[in-house]
Design goal:
Blueprint lengths: L5 H36 L4 H6 L3 H30 L6 H6 L4 H28 L8 H22 L12 H36 L5 H29 L4 H25 L44 E2 L18 E2 L1
Antiparallel strand pairs: 1-2
Helix pairs in contact: 1-3, 1-9, 3-5, 3-9, 5-6, 5-7, 5-9, 6-7, 7-8, 8-9
Keywords: Membrane, Transmembrane, Transmembrane helix
Length: 336
């Protein structure tokens, strides 16, 4: 197999990551603006305050910080390779040294982004499954494995010696495990969320409630997860084939996680799934309560079924005896 030149790959990485970061940046600003607009429209001062009590808000802020820092490190390394290191005369040696501080820090931000992204998908799974601890036991263990691998990869890069083969180094086992753990977390969580939505949809159809918006939510979740899963698979395949394309895949990896996360937030914020709160997520048993537009289960049962005005006509017959001689019967009045 023809190997792609290392310098060319890193130059391509700057362009591709910058483009993907631009998409992520626009999605983040859009999702934040829509959330602020929604909470302001819901009421007075308490609306803005309640926004900052949402775990998804902190997840958004955390992802924005780590992905932005990762992109900044990529730009800094570009200038170091072509300007400061050996006066820009030897970029190959610079990019070949994975123990440089900018590469180590960038790897740390990469792992932090993946951990945050997996944490958010587990949180969504927990909400959709009515706060069931048992459902999230497996992804919590895989998240723990991802965290350990992230620390291991970052440490191994500090021990890297120029000239070592990154594909055969100690970091290689950590990288492979890292891919397996994050794929397990996302595939499991997405499958369980999708199954839950499909199950609620099935009962909604049986009970003759509309399910169009509900299936739209299913599409949003699956499409967003497909973006991240596809890119993770691309990185895993390129790394296992010992191709330098893995440098492109690994540097764009945080942006793919951020884009997948923000796609759900933006589309929900635009109201594409808003009708699911009113029509589709109906309460069909005590363990399956309706969800709101953020994917959280409604705490009140009053809105599970739409109530319509009901006119009740009550007729009451009353008999009175005036005296013992005439036994006249009086009829009662009708009340509505």
């Amino acid at each position: 197999m023809v190997q792609v030149p290392l310098v060319s790959v890193n130059l391509s990485t700057v362009a591709i990551e910058s483009f993907c970061y631009g998409i992520f940046f626009i999605l983040t600003i859009s999702a934040t603006s829509l959330s602020l607009y929604k909470f302001r429209g819901n009421g007075p001062a308490g609306g803005n305050r309640s926004l900052f009590w949402q775990p998804m808000t902190y997840g958004t802020i955390g992802l924005f910080i780590t992905i932005t820092a990762h992109w900044i490190c990529t730009i800094i390394r570009l200038f170091e390779a072509f300007v400061t290191f050996d006066q820009g005369s030897n970029p190959l040696a610079f990019y070949g040294d994975l123990s440089r501080i900018t590469e180590v820090v960038k790897t740390g931000f990469l792992m932090a982004s993946l951990i945050l992204g997996d944490t958010m998908i587990i949180y969504r799974l927990w909400i959709v499954w009515n706060y069931s601890i048992y459902v999230i036991v497996f992804p919590l263990f895989s998240l723990l494995g991802l965290t350990v691998c992230g620390v291991g990869i970052t440490y191994q890069f500090t021990q890297y010696v120029p000239g070592m083969d990154v594909f055969e180094s100690e970091a290689g086992r950590w990288i492979t495990s890292d891919c397996v753990f994050t794929l397990c977390t996302n595939l499991y969580s997405t499958s369980m969320i999708s199954w839950k939505i499909w199950n609620v949809n099935h009962h909604a159809v049986v009970m003759r409630y509309s399910s169009q918006s509900l299936m739209s939510i299913l599409g949003i979740v699956v499409e967003s997860a497909a973006v991240y899963t596809a890119w993770t698979t691309f990185f895993f395949a390129s790394y296992q084939s010992h191709s330098n394309l893995q440098f492109v895949a690994v540097d764009v990896w945080p942006c793919s996680a951020g884009i997948a996360f923000m796609l759900i937030n933006v589309r929900v914020g635009l109201g594409w799934a808003q009708k699911a709160n009113q029509d589709s997520f109906k309460s069909y048993n005590t363990s399956s309560r309706p969800f709101n537009s953020r994917g959280e289960i409604q705490q009140s049962g009053r809105d599970a079924f739409p109530m319509h005005p009901l006119a009740v006509s009550i007729t009451q017959a009353i008999e009175f005896g005036r005296d013992t001689t005439d036994n006249e019967e009086l009829r009662g009045e009708q009340f509505k």
